[in-house]
Amino acid sequence: MGGGSDELEVGFYAETYDAAVPDWPGEISFYLEAADWAKSRGEAVLELACGTGRVAIRLAQAGARVVGLDLSPEMLAMAGQKSAAIDNVRWVEADMRTFDLEQQFGLILIPGHAFHNLLTPNDQVSCLTCAKRHLASGGMLVVHLDHQDIGWLGDLARDKDGAFVEEETFERPKTGRKVRALRAWSYERSTQTAISQTRWEELDENGDVVESRDTEPIRLHCLFRFEVEHLMARVGLEVSATYGDFFGHPLDDDSSQMIWVARRPEDNAGERETTSSASGDFRPEAKRRDK
Ligand SMILES: C[S@@+](CC[C@H](N)C(=O)[O-])C[C@H]1O[C@@H](n2cnc3c(N)ncnc32)[C@H](O)[C@@H]1O
């Protein structure tokens, strides 16, 4: 897929994704810094499950060579429309569990909690194995996950038929109308799966509902810290940092996010150790501790 198609009629989720999903605090600066690190090594960036290009396009605009990969032609159509004037970003329709791009990257990102879409250890290992295969020697993988709130999950597990609760509102760019997003959650404890169903209510100027849309339930795997550590070890990626936010603070009990930075070990690790630290690792926490 090249610049994306503007002929595909996209559904409500893809059409409104950027309006509904704000950046996480510090997120884009973090990824820009990581992309600069890859650029300093002369290497490109791959974003897995890139959606509408919310992150990938910002990195391309800052000069990185970027490939964005996603399963959804609708999300990629939005990404293609938004990036029509940029020639250093390319979109690929593929599955992050099985892709083969015949290219290696200095940096691979899985932002925006997209990895939670992989529901089984096999799927997660397949994805990380593919990612590792596409990393250059010493290249970095960044995975942004939710940090599970067991209090919240406990409430969901007790109340299996989650009621719809308003979670966010946003303006639909196409109509200029306010949209209220209500979500009903439940939790399957035996598979660590959170299930969410969304109802979008589009409102007129009086606040009356003019259109209501219900999605199919989405299943998301709830990953815990040491589960991720095991996954990384299983595929042979070395964890270099685990943060609780995009400002480089360590993961702790109050963290709402988990950001994993892992690297593909250097080929000829012994010989290259000195070279690698001389060229500098990606270590954002050094600058950010005071924020
Ligand atoms: C919550 S969106 C995140 C989009 C983007 N990463 C961001 O941060 O804005 C999740 C994305 O994951 C994609 N996705 C889910 N499963 C996938 C898979 N197996 N392979 C590739 N993309 C997948 C969906 O199509 C969707 O675009």
List the SSEs and their pairings.
Blueprint (H helix, E strand, L loop, with lengths): L11 H9 L6 H14 L4 E4 L7 H6 L4 E5 L2 H10 L6 E5 L11 E6 L10 H13 L1 E12 L3 H9 L6 E7 L6 E11 L4 E11 L5 E6 L3 E4 L3 H11 L2 E6 L13 E7 L5 H11 L5 H4 L3
Parallel strand pairs: 1-2, 1-4, 2-3, 4-5
Antiparallel strand pairs: 5-12, 6-7, 7-8, 8-9, 8-10, 11-12
Helix pairs in contact: 5-7
The protein binds S-adenosylmethionine (SAM).
The site of S-adenosylmethionine (SAM) has 18 residues, from loops.
Structural write-up:
This protein is α/β, with parallel strands linked by helices and 291 residues long. The relative contact order is 0.14. Mean pLDDT is 91; it is low at 2-6 and 274-279. Helix 5 links the parallel strand 4 and strand 5 (135-146). Helix content is 30%, strand content 29%. The structure holds S-adenosylmethionine (SAM). S-adenosylmethionine (SAM) binds next to loops.
Brief rundown of the structure:
With 291 residues, this protein is an alpha/beta fold. It has helices spanning 12-20, 27-40, 56-61, 73-82, 121-133, 150-158, 225-235, 269-279, 285-288; strands spanning 45-48, 66-70, 89-93, 105-110, 135-146, 165-171, 178-188, 193-203, 209-214, 218-221, 238-243, 257-263.
Series of H and E elements: HHEHEHEEHEHEEEEEHEEHH
Given as residue ranges, the uncertain stretches (5+ residues, pLDDT < 50) are: 2-6, 274-279
The main β sheet shows up as: 7 strands, mixed
> What is the straight-line distance between the termini?
40 Å
The total of helices stands at 9
Strands of the widest sheet, in order across it, are 3-2-1-4-5-12-11
Relative strand content: 25-35%
At CATH level 3, the topology of the largest domain is: Rossmann fold
| Strand elements, count | 12
